[in-house]
Amino acid sequence: IVFRVHKSILSHYSIVFADMLMMPPVEEAETYDDVPLVCLPDNAEEIESLLKAIYLPRSPPLYPRLTRCMPRIIYHLLNLSNKYEMNKLRRDIVQQLEADWPTSLAWWDQLEGEIAGLADLDSDAMGCIFSEDPLPDPASAIQLAHECQVPTILPAAFYHLSQLSIRCQLNKSSSRCRPWRRTANWGLLTAGDLQCLLLGRESL
Predict the structure, then answer these.
(1) What gap in Å lies between CA 201 and CA 204, rounded to an integer?
(2) Is 192 within 8 Å of 139 (Cβ atoms)?
(3) SS3 assignment, position 44
């Protein structure tokens, strides 16, 4: 797949591309449709998502708030923004992550109020809408924070995880778990994560 993009846009968003495009052209450089061609090793669909994120207006967020699939949606965007030093895009993504995993007590209380509002809805109706927990998964957030260098969301994710029973697992029903709410994909946690969780629980 070939994407035709503006040098000015790439240079504006990416330090790596800005440095690359400042290099003098080479006579034998590969071209496509009479313009320079740069081959990237990344997945074409992920590059397409990256270009959409920098080209299209983002008055709506990059992904919906309080959604279970959030890490899958933005994982590749965050990785590519790190790789190509797209600092503004990375800041936007991290800011949205921190909205789901607050960095202050006031923001945490505000988020808990939003979630409590969802919990107050009729449980039978919500069970029909959501067969599984639709809210952000703390284990997925912890994995994302480690792999994509976003340490600011770790305290909230670990604190939330400390309030859950390990019996409440994604895709596994349990009498201790209310339908659609507050589960975790415990299998994503490393031994170090579990040790950190246990130490945190002892300190609460």
Answers:
(1) 5
(2) no
(3) helix
Which tens digit of pLDDT belongs to each residue from 22-48?
Answer: 887 777 778 888 888 888 999 999 999
For residue 175, which phi and psi values (nearest 5 degrees)?
Answer: -65, -20
In whole angstroms, how far apart are CA 61 and each of 93, 118, 163? 9, 20, 28
Low-confidence residues in the chain, pLDDT < 70: 57-61, 71, 118-134, 169-181
Show Cβ contacts of residue 164 under 8 Å, excluding neighbours closer than 6 positions: 138, 182, 183, 184
H runs (alpha helix) in 101-134: 105-119, 123-129
Quote the distance between the C-alpha of residue 189 and its chain's center.
Answer: 16
Q: Are 180 and 121 within 8 A, CB to CB?
A: no
Cβ atoms of 184 and 139 within 8 Å: the answer is: yes
DSSP β-bridge partners for residue 169: 172, 184
Contacts of 37 (CB under 8 A, 6+ apart): 2, 29, 30, 31
Amino acid at position 71, single letter: P
**pTM > 0.85: yes or no:** no
Comparing CA positions, the residue from 2, 165, 159, 153 lying closest to residue 74 is 153
